[in-house]
């Protein structure tokens, strides 16, 4: 089982019927050389590396750009077409006056499983009071939040909003809120590691922006940016497989991670178990580690 926890469905064929909308997506995401793909092509690529499910992430830029990159209704529709394959997330622009209502509808009526926010793109600091009602609702509904963190190559994304330390007050104030700071907060990998050691409710993922080949980048991440045993010993249940598609190809990432030395329990956590825990909140003890993992002994 392999779950990709970070996919932007901007080119999924069934939601690519409007040329103006597609152009907005390309410009917002900074990807201009790709185009729509049908499910047959998508799932053929999944089969190369064994992906069984993927989290689909929309983005609401209502007040900053005047449009959604992908909206909650579109994610709901995609999940309805392939409910066994797609895990739908919601998004909301925190500056909207109806932000809480949008999120509540996404969870209670549309069946979406979590929330995606991008502070750099949506222009808010994570600890801004404007986002507090949203965090409280996610806690009440037992839904996780994925934040963009670290560098973004997308246009108009000031990095100041996404430094990993900008999230610490949120983690302190909301200890029961499961939070993923995506992209390993690169280049602040050690700060990200520190947060995972300190806060069992914070996760990250492998959707780094490559500055080397995938093989070189993953080996650098797991054996040099961090000590080679940090993942297994310190936060074995807090890192999830994620590709950041369509910017990067999942099968190349999987091939690279297969070459990184780690024990079987850690690899299984990375590829699927951690995602299941993040989504459900089940299976972790008070220290953030599963009862049956060697690292919890």
From TrEMBL:
Q: Does the keyword Lyase apply?
A: yes
Q: Give every Amidohydrolase-related domain span.
A: 3-279
- Species annotation: Caproicibacter fermentans
Alphabetically ordered keywords of this record: Hydrolase, Lyase
Pfam families linked: Amidohydro_2
Task: Name the InterPro entries on file.
Answer: ACMSD, Amidohydro-rel, Metal_Hydrolase
Record carries keyword DNA repair: no
Which molecular function GO terms apply here? carboxy-lyase activity; hydrolase activity
Its recorded name reads Amidohydrolase
